[in-house]
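Exercise 7 asks you to align residues with tokens for two separate proteins.
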Amino acid sequence: MATKTRFNGGELVRFGLFATIVTALLAAVGLVTTFGERDIIGGVLSVGSIFLFGVAVGAAFLLTRRNSGAPWAIRLVGGTLLGLFTSILPLLIVLLAEPLGLRRFLPNISPDLIAIMTFGQGVAGLPILVLIFAVAGLLGAVLALLSASVRRPLFAGLLVVFVVGLLSETIILSWGNQGLGLAIRRVAFAARGLSPLGALLLFLLVAGINALWNWRSGWVRERIGALPPAPRQGLRWGGIALGILVLLFLPVLLRSYLTEVINNVGLYILMGLGLNIVVGFAGLLDLGYVAFYAIGAYTMGILTSTGRLGLAGLTWWEALPIAVLMAITAGVILGVPVLRMRGDYLAIVTLGFGEIIRILATSDFLAPLTGGPQGVLQIPNVPFFGMSLIKPEHLYYLILAGCLLAFFVSWRLRDSRMGRQWMAMREDEDVAEAMGINLVKTKLLAFATGAAFSGLSGTILAAKLNSVFPHSMSLYVSINVLCLIIIGGMGSLPGVIVGALLLIGLPELLREFAEYRMLMYGVLLILIMLSRPEGFWPSEVAKRELHAREEVAVTGNANTAG
């Protein structure tokens, strides 16, 4: 295949048109205005500015990469022109907002938006806007021209600066008002966001560590690989022990609020590990996974509540095996009628099962048992050696124990005979059955195992909230868990953790922007499917399969063209 040596002007127009439309939409839906109040670098860079100019940077980066055969000077000019192209619709918004009364149709095109886009100078600020768009396009082209060894540390440093600046208020509230935290706050943080000096120091630290690791990682791996098996195994277990030690002391570092956020993330990790077995390992698309979550929570509530709905007055530990067993039974009951279903039909049936459980929980028929819309109240806390686990720091260890147990079981099952049967069934049920795999047993075990983890998460939720309400068991819970698996990487155990941190933890930290949560889901899913279809942290099997398919497709196209 011949390498292109000329810059493609048609791609410049297409990318520029896409970039200017997306930028205008981000402004029109209110993202630029809403996030304009959230500074990354105090008085210098806000999240709203990143939404406004970031699309031009990304589009110029992609355009420059696609024209890799053209001379570098031409590609720099192309990136700059794309930035100028991106400014067209934002300029029209500023110029036509008042004459056409755009705010009547698009309420978010407000004076605040115009002030942000013109830097508070009215029409006189438009040349500055155009200039910054051109610089943004040039920056995207420069980043694309850099070698990977230079670009990776830059991206790592910029990403960490963005995350720390975005979460600066939470960090300051958690541990920035006393001792060492106060000293760091005075140097690294401004009134809002990072200070310029703090952002520079953080960027240099992260980029330097990343560059050093990229430079010496091969040498480190060679030295570790040259070790005898016993020291290498000891080094591995030492790393695991260090990780567990960090997890044990995490609440001391995070304080109450951040620990509460981690607890919410942990509940979704627990559910995600269960659904990962059903969807990621076995390939069974389950959209009613929240049903097992609800069954575990309601069973725990009914058996332990001290109110009028309490039946047995058990403690949390006494009711735990019963609640998990009820969830497992529900998983088997769901699995029996869908044994011969696949794909979309399976998704529809499981979706109906989840809705049936939710409707039953709110119905008058079961109201004497479940409390109907009012739910189950007065659920006691988890007792533990004479004390009650009330504070987030206490519940953290219970959730951590559940997540570690689920992670260990999933890890052992993945490499077991049953795990390989699940994966074979995921690839092709007919071939798996022809090889002697019992599909009935294999599917039922997948549903039962996934339901057990979801039911365990529900039991912890009931004790955490001291109540269970049906509106907490909506379809969105199933969608959230499925999304975090897709974004983290189907079939990947670390991917579940990464996906939960991104889709559950980040919106919790940005609670004031919660109305954009579903938009974040959509954008992340689109970006993942385009840039990393295998997920943020894919399993090795999924990565090999995906790249093998891509190589086959490329080879087939080349043969056809030949």
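Second protein for Exercise 7:
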Amino acid sequence: MQKIEATSPEALSADLTAQNIAQLKALFPELLTESANGVALNVDVLKALVGDATASDAEEKYGLNWHGKRRARQLALTPSTGTLRPCVDESVDWDTTQNLMIEGDNLEVLKLLQKSYSGKVKLIYIDPPYNTGKDFVYPDNFQDNIKNYLELTGQVEGGRKISSNTEASGRFHTDWLNMMYPRLKLARNLLREDGVMFVSIDENELENLLRMGNEIFGEENYVGLIAAQLNPRGRHLDRFLARTHEYLCVFAKDAESNALYSIAKDERMAAEYRKEDDRGKFRELELRNRNPAFNRLTRPNLYYPIYVDPNTGSVSIERSVQYSIEVFPKNSEGSDSCWTWGKEKLAAEKSIVSGRQVADGGWRINRKDYLVDEDGKSAMTLPKALWIDKSFNNDLGKKAIQELFDKTVFDFPKSPAFVAKTIEIGSESNDLVLDFFGGSGTTGQSVMAQNVADGGNRHYILVQLPEPLDPENKDQKTAADFCDQIGKPRTIAELTKECLRRAGTKVKSDNPMFAGDTGFRVFKLDTSNIQAWNPDRDNLEKTLLDHEEHILSGRTEADIMYELLLKLGLDLCVPIETKIIDPQMTQIGADKVKTNPQITQMGADKGNSKNDDLMDFNLRKSASSADKNGFEVHAIGGGVLLACLAERITVVDVEALAQGIVAWRKELAPAGDTTCVFRDSAFENDIAKSNLAAILEQYGIRNVRSL
């Protein structure tokens, strides 16, 4: 039975460096060599493979560089040792919801989500700090970011003061870039291949964001820049120009997959596609070219007669008894025009072309224009790069917050309509949306609103730092006082959760027929449940006793369960079934059980009296350690993961427990292999541990772990 230690891969978030090395090895195995520090990259071989002209390690090269960039890249690649602890009492509709609100440093949370959500997110929208000199900037710690996070948020003593990033610091842009780079790097991994990312920004870091985004996503995946008028009166601090707009930078995981364009929507145009046949929805367009610049003289090859069957309206390019009506393209003044199609295309597509007699006795030639063509491409108009709709104004974002709270607890929240627009053009009905600068919770509110609008079933993941609110700060006093009123800690994350609760209630109140998901599960970032080996060299005896239990004190079964989900790559909303296995059930016959004789004889070989007493464990008559209700076993993902986190498993419990697990797994019939996990300290001795693993392996469960 393999034990999961604090440093085991199963206890860490995804090791992106190892994944990168594995990909390189698969493509170019000759690149990798060994060094004193382990696997190394042979740069000379790399140059030989791609050519000296394209492989350069020179300092002077085109790109965005700043002090700390290498460290920022390392931060993205360093696995997290943390976990996410479930908070059922702070959640809404825990048992049924598929939405997540995660309280914690978004860098660590993004790392922890890598195994479970890599390649699953369709749309990311973020509204990060604009770097105005007042916004909070995350001072990441390369050595121990979890400890750094707990100190910064006041959860442990000895924390540093959170300060603004002022231009006088000399690292104004550098600090912001170091904060954003690893987060964007990790966020890209979570996107689906057809995923898209929207980033709100103003002029302060626009240029840096574009260059950084092009480096992370690739210039070929830069979709474009949207200018959105969010403040028609201009900002009150503007000196020379009234800046009425902000920007949305749009990047795709893979622009070739038409991440944005394939589902681009225009409501006015969509309304025109009212007719439908076997090929799908369509509208009718005139085949005549309405542009006056195109006519018989400028496009002579597009000027020709089309013949119509007056009985059916079908068309032909040749006259016959059936196709007797001759029609030439004429403009509204009766002059010669031209068609939009040539003869060859008309002959190939004549089944979707028809003639119709109009009021003056003449004939009009129409064609069907399908909403989605045969290649799956949408005929919709592309989203515009200039957004000036009044519903996008920031004042309406503030008004939306006031409607929920009867006061302004956020200074500059985005309008729900503005965020909903990104969701409308960037996602479809069952997609997953991520916002790791959750703030006022507007993205969650907008997901619910868009689901109401189009009957969708989108879900969201929001991440927000529990940034402390200072009641002595006039800009934070209202928010801090509100937290006091509702009996919650004074943090922005508490406001985010309260926004989501109230927004969900409002959605149901305003739309009583809406049966969509308005709940959310709350998780909080914390250190791993698995206790790391941290010896006190002055008191080794106490250290050994403290580490006899490998799970941190105060952690619940639910805490452990959800860490297993994260570290094994399962969805945090995956169904979990629980079953009680009766320890008194009939045991598997001793003749069928493959025990480990080395473990069984261990006590005899070493003269260990305790193990001597246990050699013939099948005949032992001690009582089972399971309580009268039996062992509680959890099945996750239909049996992909089975976990029994009982605190005590004796030798005589093993057969009954193993038999119950084997029988339940057979009943569940999981699609893949099953991983079975137990609490390491629960086993009475190594005999119980070894034989439980042996029985499970005998019945096909080979991945057995303890923690």
